[in-house]
Please model this.
Amino acid sequence: MTNFATLSSAFLFLHTAIIIEKSLRLLVSTAKHVNVPSYELLCESAFGHGGFIFISVNMFIMAYGGMLSYLIIVKDTLPRLVGVSLGNVPMERAVLTLTSMVTMLPLSMQRVSSS
Model:
């Protein structure tokens, strides 16, 4: 039974990789055909203004989720590395705020990713 699970999961993994590769190739060729430089403009040209709004909102949600999970990881690990005691919540928040303002904020403000 475990061999069947291994083979079927390997098949599904390979099949998913092939489908993703095909869809990315179609996406790039469509962008070249329409002559648009960004994913947002490609969605706008394919689906109108609603497509632009939809993809912009979804990209914001994905970026916000990534940022939030990164901040949670930093909040859990960095105060322990610095030496803040376990129950000192104000100091943990201060370390998180300082780290966010000194390192993460300047890195996220470097430039627009589509340029």
